[in-house]
Amino acid sequence: MALYRDEAYLAQPALDMVQRIRLYASSLMRYGKSPYIYPMWGLGELPQAFARLSAVYGGVYMLHQAVDKVVFGDDGNVCGVISGGMYAKCKAVVADPSYFPDRVEKRGRVVRAICILSHPVTPNGEKSSQIIIPQSQTGRKSDIYIFCCSYEHKVAANGKYIAIVSTTVETDVPFEELQLGIKLLGAVDEVIYDTYDLLAPTGGAYKNEVYVSESYDPTTHFETTSDDIMAMYKAITNKEIDMTKPIKMGEEE
User: Fold this and answer.
1) Domain range list for the chain
2) pLDDT score recorded for residue 253
3) What is the pTM of this model?
4) Gap between the Cα atoms of 177 and 174, Å rounded
5) pLDDT tens across 114-124, in order?
6) d(CA 208, CA 93)
7) What pLDDT digit, counting tens, does each position of 70-114 carry?
């Protein structure tokens, strides 16, 4: 419920844990039976919503455009991007690790299984849910994460559920490391496996007005991703995101 990723909290003051559990309880009362809210039509709706809002403020989205070159000015700072023979001026570049391999380092690997089911994961039949198998109960160094969404979120055919099982790779047989989590799902219609490097920015990741994000880690509740976004926002704007203040149309942020 507190979404800790290791056992360090056992030796820490209780206040942070109480606040995390309070957040869980308040989230549980927001919508339906689950505290984990997932966007309709999947995560792809988030960039689409951003694209629509960006257009209101004069932003332009260029889809399916490869980046041929990132251009730096005489002062060493980024000043533009070349794509398909077109040049776009900019004051900063925000990118994932694949665009700047010289500014990131490998910190492990992630193994993930996408499972298609014909039934819910939890006994009560919640349409979205999350299960975390603690490392202390499996003899591992890393937790195993299970996230489930469903046809109610318009991400699967009617009556179908999508479960994602993920963890940090610790052996030479990464797919086997997920089996404990997959067994909890019951009957699985189909499973798709994937592994990828976990890349994290080095000291030069926030340099020359270039801001490089981290790879997605094995967690499935997006807390670390949100932390990464807020850290980049502060580095770019030199101010914190105030999550308690809703942004209204027409307001500058």
Assistant:
1) 31-61+92-238
2) 46
3) 0.83
4) 5
5) 999 999 998 88
6) 9
7) 999 999 999 999 998 899 999 999 999 999 999 999 999 999 999
pLDDT band at 247 (very low <50, low <70, confident <90, very high): low
Q: What is the 3-state secondary structure (H, E, C) of the chain?
A: CCCCCCCHHHHCCCHHHHHHHHHHHHHHCCCCCCCCCCCCCCCCHHHHHHHHHHHHCCCCCCCCCCCCEEEECCCCCEEEEEECCEEEECCCEEECHHHCHHHEEEEEEEEEEEEEECCCCCCCCCCCEEEEECHHHCCCCCCEEEEEEEHHHCCCCCCCEEEEEEEECCCCCHHHHHHHHHHHCCCCCEEEEEEEEEEEECCCCEECCEEECCCCCCCCCCHHHHHHHHHHHHHHHCCCCCCCCCCCCCCCC
CATH 3.30.519.10 fits 31-61+92-238, yes or no: yes
Choose among 116, 129, 128: nearest CA to 182: 116
Amino acid identity for residue 64 in this structure: H
Amino acid identity for residue 168 in this structure:
T
